[in-house]
Design brief:
Elements (H helix, E strand, L loop, with lengths): L1 H28 L6 H31 L4 H26 L17 H72 L1 H20 L6 E2 H16 L6 E6 L8 E2 L5 H10 L7 E10 L2 E9 L14 H12 L4 E8 L2 E9 L1
Parallel strand pairs: 2-4
Antiparallel strand pairs: 1-3, 4-5, 5-7, 6-7
Helix pairs in contact: 1-2, 2-3, 2-4, 3-4, 4-5, 4-8, 5-6
Organism: Flavobacterium sufflavum
GO molecular function: phosphorelay sensor kinase activity
InterPro entries: Bact_2-comp_sensor_kinase, HATPase_C_sf, Sig_transdc_His_kin_internal
């Protein structure tokens, strides 16, 4: 339906432009002692030829020749087409107004030569060609840009969906194992953990299908995620987080921070060394600032653990969702890997 509406709108705009162009010569000549034949010969007939040149290029020549890099064939075809219409146009003018091409009138005054009129015709008959190329090229660029953005959207959506489905079973079973180990040692903590896990899985299943989610819900999700992840590690791993309590809620893209948090757990924990991971978020008006600091233990190429979405894809997603409204940077200093993300919502 939208496609048909766009097509009808384009047809309407084209008709409106040509109606205005054909109306002006008649309206400007009304009230003068000028025959309608003059308007027809000097305005409407050339305009009709302009229409033919414009749409022959718009529908045929540009697609078949110019866009397929057959530039010489494109230029030759247009030269023949324009020359043909100029010839016909001048024949019509000569038939109705032969006296305008006489080089010398009865008083001996010289009038412009026929070559000058042909030169002017060439200029005017080239105008619809230029406009046709400009319009068609612009439309193609808009279409290509739209398709590129749509492809990026589909790719990122599939990556996000992949992240969700990979996160669910992997994280779910790890959490169940941790809960199982708590049942005998700390039954109350095991109950709380099951409750947190259920809320986390409910959020993944039902709320992340929307384009935007509540930031407070997203904060609660990543808080539950971090708390559950803490069960996997020993006291050698120090995990801290500082998230704001929002007075006014904001809307953000779902699972926007989780890949960064996963990355910190993936590359920031060592089985043999003391490690530290710090998450911090602040909100100032419509600006969200999120930072992570963790020890840096890069995985080898053979290690395929983690979601696989990667920091590179995170940047692509930010460019698509928040173009010109985000700052994203990473750095490694003194054995620590830091991430800083700022968003204008």
């Amino acid at each position: 339906m939208d496609f048909l509406k766009n097509k009808l709108a384009i047809v309407f705009y084209h008709l409106m432009v040509w109606t205005v162009l054909f109306s002006f010569p008649y309206l400007l000549s009304s009230g003068q002692n000028q025959a309608i034949q003059a308007v027809i010969v000097f305005s409407w007939i050339p305009l009709s030829f302009y229409v033919l040149i414009f749409y022959t290029n718009y529908f045929v020549f540009i697609e078949r020749f110019l866009f397929t890099k057959k530039t010489i064939l494109f230029l030759v075809s247009n030269a023949i087409l324009i020359a043909f219409f100029i010839l016909i146009n001048n024949q019509i003018k000569e038939y109705f107004f032969q006296h305008i091409f006489i080089h010398k009138d009865k008083q001996g005054q010289f009038k412009p030569s026929r070559n000058l009129f042909i030169y002017i015709d060439i200029l005017f008959f080239t105008v619809p060609l230029v406009f046709s190329v400009a319009l068609k090229t612009t439309e193609r660029w808009i279409k290509t840009e739209g398709e590129r953005k749509e492809a990026m959207t589909i790719k990122l959506e599939s990556e996000l969906q992949h992240l969700k489905y990979q996160l669910q079973p992997h994280f779910f079973f790890n959490s169940l194992n941790n809960i199982y180990s708590l049942v005998d040692v700390s039954p109350e903590q095991a109950k709380q953990t099951i409750h947190s896990l259920s809320k986390l899985m409910r959020y993944l299943l039902y709320q992340t299908n929307n384009d935007k989610v509540s930031l407070s819900n997203e904060i609660q999700f990543i808080t539950n995620y971090i708390e559950l992840m803490k069960l996997r590690f020993t006291e050698n791993t120090k995990i801290e987080y500082d998230f704001p309590v929002l007075k006014t809620d904001l809307q953000v893209a779902p699972l926007l921070f989780i890949s960064l948090i996963e990355n910190a757990f993936k590359h920031g924990v060592s089985a043999s060394q003391e490690t530290e991971i710090v998450f911090k978020m602040s909100v100032d008006g419509n600006r969200i600032s999120f930072s992570i600091k963790n020890h840096n233990f890069p995985k080898t190429d053979s290690d395929k653990s983690g979601s696989g979405i990667g920091l590179q894809n995170m940047e692509k997603r930010l460019q698509l969702l928040y173009p010109g409204k985000h700052q994203f940077s990473t750095a490694v200093n003194d054995g620590f890997f830091t991430v800083n993300l700022a968003l204008e919502i």
